[in-house]
Design goal:
Elements lengths: L20 H13 L1 H4 L14 H11 L7 H5 L9 E4 L6 H8 L3 E6 L2 H11 L4 H22 L8 E12 L6 E3 L5 E4 L8 E5 L6 E5 L5 E2 L6 E2 L6 E2 L2 E3 L6 E3 H8 L4 E10 L5 E5 L2 H17 L15 H5 L11 H15 L4 H15 L7 E2 L7 E2 L14 E3 L11 H17 L2 E3 L12 E3 L9 E3 L12 E5 L12 E6 L9 H12 L24 H18 E11 L4 H13 L2 E10 L6 H5 L6 E9 L10 H19 L8 H16 L5 H20 L29
Parallel strand pairs: 1-2, 1-22, 2-21, 20-21, 22-23
Antiparallel strand pairs: 3-4, 3-13, 3-17, 5-6, 6-7, 8-9, 10-11, 11-12, 13-14, 15-16, 18-19, 23-25, 24-25
Helix pairs in contact: 1-3, 3-5, 7-11, 7-12, 9-11, 11-12, 12-13, 15-16, 16-20, 18-19, 19-20
């Protein structure tokens, strides 16, 4: 590929204070509730921190939109930016590449993790509806029936939707088996206050009976035993033995055995032919059926994961529970069902169809393992293993029907429809989110005709020539600190880099890679694990900054002088911002603007559990240092300008009631400080400035932007304000 020389452009909308972050936040708020509905193309498989498509469409469009343009009108127009090239060095789920493709750019994506690149390749590549459906029907007739038979009840007519298991350990004092129930309520409705009936297991006889979600005393109707259903033997890190009445540490006791804890089957949810669902205790026939599946697994000699679990930040907890291989995450019946299904899919001759169905299989993995749990009726019944973004050993796991029924959650057959077919629908008729949305009515919030259908042509590697039409997609797998792209060949780098001390993607992605490598994708090569030393992920802030700087230095090399580096970022810790500042300035960039925008899923578990949850991302806009004509400001002037800008943007963002925490205020202020202080200062000088300002920043953000008002979620929510109102923060 020959380098493209671009002339310096005038300031674009993304660089100005006119960037419509409030409008994009309105769209993002809608999309964030149902990302899998509004951007299904990026949610065919699990990936972490998947960003909002509306936001990235807006970012890309604003990179090419002059100041003064009617942006909202442009947002819903079709565009074709010809041969301009957008590069994302942290591809992830493919949001930047997909949105760039819709806008007519040449889209280039790269990621060091083969699980991410393969997922993006399949979702953005060739997906032909008729061929995929025919292959699914053949699977259904072949292996689907065999898997369904594994979940046929043997003592009563019907399909088992879910088997309920509980971990148990031997008491270190008397060796009695102790079930690790945190509560004897094992099934409840997702909206318990409106649907108060729950299912309880009697600790004395194992019988099941209904109760109410807030009951603190129950009597088993079968054996007469009275107990508190809210209190099980396991509480936090300890368990209590009912035999000798001693307490013992759970993890330490399990670790001493050198193997994962055992599981006991105690209940099932049956779907009768009439459609009625009924909770029943596990029977001897159920246990015999499981043992039969174990024997069949030994006879089949299926290719199963043999990848060992390496020590790491996100894997240490499961290693302490005795898990040594990713295979240990599944029970024998799950391994049999998944192994039969995977072997049959890998035998499909059409590589595109095979890859598509392997993607559905990968989705099914996160719901069909012994780390999944039961959410209950009223919503998707299976809580997948990554609901908390960590590997948390589940004490009361659920075993779902792997193939599934019409009433199943997390099954291969239901995920085929809800993920793959929804993705194909979106690719054929892309749409954008509209502000006409009313909660619960997704059809009213879709605007069609804003983009051409996806082409479905993904090339592996780099563009070989700048000529030809746009809307091409190029993907590669490897470290982005050395890409092979020619200098000055990229117009925009738009990305979302990892956070240095957050989710360690490769440690978790190995769960999927353990199966993916059994039938390798074009990106797997000889890797035994997705963990690599060049991954931009580190618990040490300095090491993280160095790795990120290496990638940004490569971005600097491949960008035109007129090009922009734009990325989204947030971090509650001060050193997270020092790291990103050092990486950018050290790579030869300067921050020219920063904008707040709605981030992440509104219902994300880590967010709801945080004391001061961050609800915004910061869009950081950077130019090459030598193209930034601003001059160095005195510290007092820079501080005053930064605080005023932060205040103005907060007012604009809060024109509508939005959640906004102390940490939101902090990162908004920090981002403006980067913009105002960086001209004329080196990376080392900026690190010193941020260190000197740390106390002042915390003090400024300690008084909230508004008086505390509790939202329905129990978090502060800002009232709508006019721009003329006085706010205590930043004054």
């Amino acid at each position: 590929m020959t380098a493209i020389k671009r002339s310096k452009k005038s300031e674009m909308l993304i660089e100005s204070d006119s960037f419509p972050f409030a409008f994009l936040s309105d769209l993002a708020e809608i999309e964030s509730w149902r990302k899998e509905i509004y951007r299904p193309v990026y949610h065919t498989r699990k990936w972490w921190a998947t960003r909002l498509g509306s936001v990235f469409r807006g970012i890309l469009l604003a990179c090419c939109t002059p100041i003064g343009t009617d942006f909202e009108k442009e947002f819903y127009r079709r565009h074709d930016f010809g041969r301009q090239i957008v590069f994302d060095p942290f591809l992830g789920s493919g949001t930047t590449v997909g949105e760039a493709h819709k806008l007519g750019f040449v889209a280039v994506g790269r990621d060091i993790n083969p699980v991410a690149v393969e997922a993006a390749r399949v979702a953005l590549g060739s997906l032909e509806r008729t061929s995929v459906i025919k292959a699914f029907r053949r699977l259904e007739e072949d292996v689907g029936g065999r898997i369904r038979d594994l979940y046929k009840a043997k003592d009563i007519e019907g399909d088992v939707l879910y088997y309920f298991w509980v971990k148990n350990v031997s008491c270190p004092k008397c060796t009695a088996k102790v079930d690790l129930f945190s509560s004897y309520i094992f099934a409840r409705h997702a909206y318990a206050a409106r649907n108060p009936v729950v299912q309880v297991i009697c600790p004395a006889c194992g019988g099941l009976f209904p109760s109410t979600y807030n009951a603190t005393e129950d009597t088993c109707p079968q054996c007469g035993h009275s107990f508190d259903p809210q209190q099980g033997p396991a509480h936090n890190a300890e368990a209590h033995c009912g035999n000798c009445h001693s307490a013992f540490p759970i993890a330490k006791t399990i670790r001493a055995t050198g193997r994962p804890p055992e599981h006991r089957l105690y209940a099932k949810l049956l779907l009768r032919p009439s459609g009625e669902k009924v909770y029943l205790p596990a029977t001897d026939e159920d246990r015999a059926a499981y043992m039969a599946a174990s024997r069949q697994l030994e006879r089949e000699e299926l290719p199963l994961p043999d990848l060992e679990i390496a020590d790491g930040y996100n894997t240490r907890q499961v290693l302490n529970y005795g898990y040594r291989s990713w295979r240990d995450f599944f029970n024998d019946r799950q391994l049999l069902a998944l192994g039969l299904l995977h072997r049959t899919i890998c035998a499909i001759e059409d590589p595109d169809v095979q890859a598509a169905l392997r993607g559905v299989f990968s989705s099914a993995l996160e719901f069909n393992n012994m780390f999944a749990s039961y959410k209950g009726e009223g919503t998707g019944a299976v809580r997948h293993m990554f609901s908390h973004h960590i590997l948390k050993p589940e004490r009361m796991p659920i075993e779902a029907n792997v193939w599934g029924t019409e009433s199943s959650s997390g099954a291969f057959s239901t995920l085929f429809k809800s993920r793959l077919m929804r993705c194909i629908d979106y690719r054929e008729r892309p749409f954008e989110v509209s502000l006409s949305h009313s909660r619960g009515d997704t059809s009213s919030s879709k605007v069609f005709g804003c983009s051409d259908p996806f082409r479905g042509d993904v090339k592996i590697g780099w563009p070989t020539t700048p000529e030809g039409d746009g809307r091409q997609i190029f993907l590669s797998c490897g470290s982005s600190h050395k890409t092979g792209l020619l200098a000055g060949s990229v117009d925009y780098v738009v990305t979302d880099p990892p956070f240095f001390d957050n989710v360690h993607y490769s440690e978790l992605a190995d769960f999927f890679y353990a199966w993916q490598r059994l039938c390798p994708s074009p990106f797997d090569g000889t890797l035994r694990t997705t963990r690599q030393s060049d991954e931009v992920q580190d618990t040490d802030a300095r090491c993280f900054a160095g790795k990120l700087q290496a990638v940004f230095s490569e971005c600097h090399r491949v960008l035109t002088d007129a090009g922009l580096l734009v990325f989204t970022y947030h971090h509650s810790r001060h050193d997270g911002w020092v790291s990103v500042c050092e990486a950018c300035l050290g790579a030869g960039f300067r921050f020219v603007n920063a904008h707040p925008v709605k981030a992440e899923m509104s219902v994300a578990a880590p967010k709801s559990q945080a004391k001061e949850p961050i609800d915004i991302d910061i869009v950081l806009v950077c130019r090459k240092t030598h193209t930034d004509n601003r001059t160095r400001q005195a510290e007092d002037s820079a501080w005053l300008r930064a605080t005023e800008k932060a205040r103005e943007k907060a007012l604009t963002y809060l024109q509508k009631p939005r959640k906004f925490s102390k940490n939101d205020a902090k990162i908004l202020l920090l981002s403006q400080l980067l913009v105002e202080f960086c001209p004329g200062r080196t990376a080392n000088e900026m690190s010193g400035v941020l260190a000197d300002l740390a106390t002042r920043i915390e003090a400024t953000c300690s008084s909230l932007l508004f008086g505390p008002q509790k939202s329905s979620a129990g978090r502060r929510q800002a009232p709508a304000r006019s721009a003329s109102e006085e706010l205590p923060l930043f004054k």
